[in-house]
Design brief:
The chain has 6 helices and 22 strands. With 384 residues, the protein is an alpha+beta fold.
């Protein structure tokens, strides 16, 4: 068509050669119009079609070990949590801590009224001192009798009676000392002390209250021995071991990711949630963890199987339920694409497994696949 128009233009030029100057101006086409006509004609050529082909980024379907990624939600907990209670009943005289206080081992946390027990202790202490004095006196008299016996100034029976008196007084002193120690322990039980270093997380009593033995009044959490607890669906129990990889994200630390180490797998399944518990340790450097923090985890479990994997960006999910990818025809030049329906499996590390529809080695479109058409020519760029 464009050859015909060009010939017509050339013929017009020959005719104009024999015409008046005014006639030549009447038949001359403006240069801009001529350029526009040529561009329109050239737009239908294969070269122009190639220039208009969309640019797509492609990758290659590969065979790889299939990894199952299991998303988890957990909580920072302490390896040591104690619900503290008094060994004896009594009226609360003083509560020396508040929730959030950090305490050292042995610090007095709660003190109960001990007036009666203290008076009893003081009475026993006096009895112990008296028994000690009586024993000392008996021993003195016995030593004197031994010297007199050497001089034959005292009978053997009298000496033996003094020796027996020493033994009786010594036994009495030990008895008094034991009673005093038992009473001292009773007095000490009126003071509730921290069994280890930690943080007070709960407080359930106030001064003036009467508490019974064994009733929890404080909760102490060891703040320097923290771990993360995740509940894992029981279907993954057989695939988890201490070497399993897990990545941990803490919401309170600007969603930073850390490598976790599985410290223990608790082999008891929760019948209601169908889950079991794993304990994970994580090194967060100088960041501070607190029991109760929310944590997210990604557990990587190798299935031990090989399969075809492609980039998840290649997957198109349609409203009718179809899942497709665009594949580059290896025999076409210039390249063309065709859409294939696929069946997908697990996703991991930006990849997705293909169960049906794609073979390893096929070139697939991973970017620019939103508006392609069947058999359309494309310009391809390899993914880095």
């Amino acid at each position: 068509m464009y050859r015909h128009i060009t010939a017509t233009l050339l013929a017009g030029k020959s005719v104009r050669n024999g015409m008046h100057t005014a006639d030549r101006y009447r038949y001359r086409l403006p240069g801009a119009v001529l350029a526009t006509v040529l561009l329109i004609l050239l737009a239908g050529t294969p070269l122009a079609a190639a220039d208009r082909s969309p640019l797509v980024v492609v990758g290659t379907a590969q065979t790889d070990t299939i990894v199952r990624k299991v998303p988890l939600t957990g909580t920072v907990t302490s390896a040591r949590v104690a619900r503290l209670s008094a060994e004896v009943g009594g009226q609360v005289e003083a509560v020396n801590v508040e929730v959030g206080d950090r305490v050292e081992a042995g610090v007095a946390l709660i003190e109960l009224d001990r007036e009666i027990e203290q008076l009893t202790l003081e009475g026993l202490q006096a009895s112990t001192r008296q028994a000690s004095a009586e024993l000392a006196d008996a021993k003195r008299r016995y030593q004197d009798a031994k010297r007199l016996r050497k001089q034959k100034n005292i009978s053997e029976n009298a000496l033996r009676l003094l020796e027996a008196e020493v033994e009786v007084d010594d036994a009495m002193l030990r008895q008094k000392q034991a009673e005093e120690q038992r009473q001292q322990a009773r007095v000490e039980r009126h003071t509730l002390r921290a069994p280890f270093k930690g943080v007070i997380s709960e407080r359930q009593t106030e001064s003036g209250e009467w508490i019974e033995p064994g009733r929890p009044v404080l909760t102490l959490v060891a703040a320097d021995d923290l771990r993360i607890e995740f509940r894992v669906p029981q279907e993954f129990y057989t695939g988890i071991n201490p070497q399993s990889e897990i990545r941990v994200t803490l919401d309170a630390l600007m969603e930073r990711e850390f490598d976790g180490r599985i410290g223990a797998v608790v082999p008891v399944s929760d019948a209601n949630s169908r889950t079991f518990l794993i304990h994970v340790r994580v090194d967060v450097g100088d960041a501070r963890l607190t029991p109760g923090m929310s944590v997210h985890g990604k557990l990587n479990l190798s299935t031990g199987r090989q399969g075809v994997v492609i980039s998840r960006d290649a997957i198109l999910r349609h409203p009718d339920g179809r899942v497709t990818v665009w594949v580059v025809d290896p025999d076409s030049e210039p390249p063309t694409v065709s859409e294939k329906r696929v069946t997908t499996g697990h996703s991991f590390d930006g990849l997705i497994t293909i169960l049906e529809g794609i073979q390893a080695g096929e070139v697939i479109v991973v970017r620019g696949n939103e508006s392609l058409q069947q058999g359309q020519q494309v310009r391809i760029q390899r993914r880095d």
